[in-house]
Design a protein that fits this description.
Nucleotidyltransferase, domain 5; 5 strands; 45% helix; 12 helices; 12% strand; alpha/beta; 5-stranded mixed beta sheet
Amino acid sequence: MLARSYPVALVCDVLGCARSSYYHQAKPRDDTRLMDAIKAVGAEWPTYGYRRVTAQLKRQDWDVNHKRVRRLMRLMDLLIEPKRRKQRTTNSEHDFPRYPNLVEDLEIVRPDQVWVSDITYVRLLDEFIYLAVIMDVFTRAIRGWHLGRSLDHSLTLLALQQGLAHHQAPEIHHSDQGVQYACTAYTRVLQDANVQISMAEVGAAWQNGYAERLMRTIKEEEVDLSEYTDYTDAIRQIGHFLNDVYVNKRIHSSLGYLTPAEFEAQWRCEHESRAST
């Protein structure tokens, strides 16, 4: 050790550091409370990554950065990617008209400019049921949904009718080319509401990426974590997730870590303020 051969003051002067730093022994930081907080966030939002966990902690008045959260989540083994299961719900082999993709290069800048739609399955103890959801791309808010026992066009049609009954009609409705979206009954409702129809190309799931990510979130954060006793129980729990949790509690990185409800309310307030001036 240099200190054994030379005075501490001289060594510190050569190294350009304060003498107090030689004698100071840094105390290890106690992360117990923060780890408990991370566990609580993880229990409520099992699929949150470290950045979203960090944002949620900041909403709870924690002064923390994402590097520290990532380190602790790795230490706690909370950075494991969930497994994903898929089952086909799209049948694009039909004779109904096809529509071009209108949103591929579109800049989406306001609520109800583009709604996207998709279908996923939900497994009960003795049957499969199916969920159709419509989301507004700009706000990520759910506009309509329906849970049914059949994959026929009534599944998507009821979700659409719910959305149009409670919200302003979108300028564009985007979906895949599945028969549930291409059938006459569905497209007629859109046309009667003066909505432009847009569809992803067959086999190009990424062209309906917003809806794909929404369904992945629903599966990972609600369906895969729940055991529904029956159809009625599934409607109750999924409805709670879509209407309450997803819109009013779940923060989105694409929305600046706000909830859809917060983001839409903020946008409308700012837009109305600009319009009044």
